[in-house]
Amino acid sequence: DQQVKQNSPSLSVQEGRISILNCDYTNSMFDYFLWYKKYPAEGPTFLISISSIKDKNEDGRFTVFLNKSAKHLSLHIVPSQPGDSAVYFCAASAYNQGGKLIFGQGTELSVKP
Amino acid sequence: EPEVTQTPSHQVTQMGQEVILRCVPISNHLYFYWYRQILGQKVEFLVSFYNNEISEKSEIFDDQFSVERPDGSNFTLKIRSTKLEDSAMYFCASRTDISSGANVLTFGAGSRLTVL
After folding, report:
1. Hey, which residues does A12 pair with through a beta bridge?
2. Which of A82, A106, A108, B15 has the most CB atoms in a 10 Å sphere around its CB?
């Protein structure tokens, strides 16, 4: 039951360039989407989110885009920095599901100096 | 910044033994969750807890698992008789109020469980 999918297990980007991480979902009841960042041996840390009533949310170097018709969201990091190297998880929730988050498989981002 | 704390950070146990993982959620949070991540796999929902009772549980959360909030601050996950496949990183998470519209869960650093 893969309601949230991140099809790229890894991504390598040069420092200063744009990183684009993608996420697809199947459940049309999802109304809130989040990106979490995870370093080894740590818990997921919230990065940025977007409500289904919006198509874009920006916070500094991080921007999340939502395409509801395609059931697709993406995280853009510009410019990428070596400290951004981590595993990025896309997550989704539906209001009628008690706040439970459904996670994707994660994409490991490596930003090379 | 308030944080969710989990103990122990790593526990090694023999198959069939009982394990209790402990969590102290953020103090004004009302909703509590346990998730797990088997090595190399996705973070999976186990159970949610609100108002001193389970609000939802996944298929993974079978009769071997239980949760409780014994003293108003700790939130525990008990595995009665551990199996090899229970080896994973277990994450506790909490959030304030789902009606706020900002469904951001704050996660702890995790407890690594190794079942031998």
Report:
1. A110
2. A106
More confident residue, A71 or A98: A71
Could you list the pLDDT tens digit for every one of the 116 residues in chain B? 779 999 999 999 999 999 999 999 998 888 999 999 998 888 999 999 998 899 999 999 999 999 999 887 899 999 999 999 999 999 999 988 766 556 789 999 999 999 99
Task: Determine which of B46, B103, B111 to mutate to test the interface with A (most A C-beta atoms within 10 Å).
Answer: B103
Structure tokens at B2: 């308030």
Say if A33 is an interface residue toward chain B (CB within 8 Å). Answer: no
What is d(CA B92, CA B110) in angstroms, rounded to the nearest whole number? 7
- For an interface test with B, the pick among A45, A100, A102, A103 (most B C-beta atoms closer than 10 Å) comes out as A100
Residue with tokens 């100096």: A113
Q: How far apart are CA A18 and CA A25, in angstroms?
A: 23
